[in-house]
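Most newcomers find our protein records easier to grasp once they have seen one. A record pairs a protein's sequence with a compact description of its fold. An example says more than a description, so a record of this kind follows:
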Amino acid sequence: MQFVTEPHRISAIDDNGKWVGDISFPPVAGYPDRVVAERVFVAPEGRGHGLAAELTKRFVDYAHERHLTVKLMCPYVKAAFRDHPEYQDLLLPEDRFNQ
């Protein structure tokens, strides 16, 4: 599996060069240091192998490296942030989950 990072998207490409999923995180208008975790999508043939979790982790690393603040829209990513307290420093204080 290969991962391709572009501005506002990280895509997963299988060993045959086929796209199998991505996570998108467009910028928040007027806030250059904020992005919205909009959606994570995995094609049917890529499901059941932890790809959504890997895409989410790569997004978290990307956001940490760039000191971004994240707004959560995607239910999957929201659940991942709820389950991983170490991700929550990327959220505004009022958006953090109580642990």
In short: The CA atoms of residues 20 and 43 lie 5 Å apart. The beta strands are 2-6, 9-13, 19-24, 27-28, 31-37, 39-42, 69-72. DSSP finds two helices and seven strands in the chain.
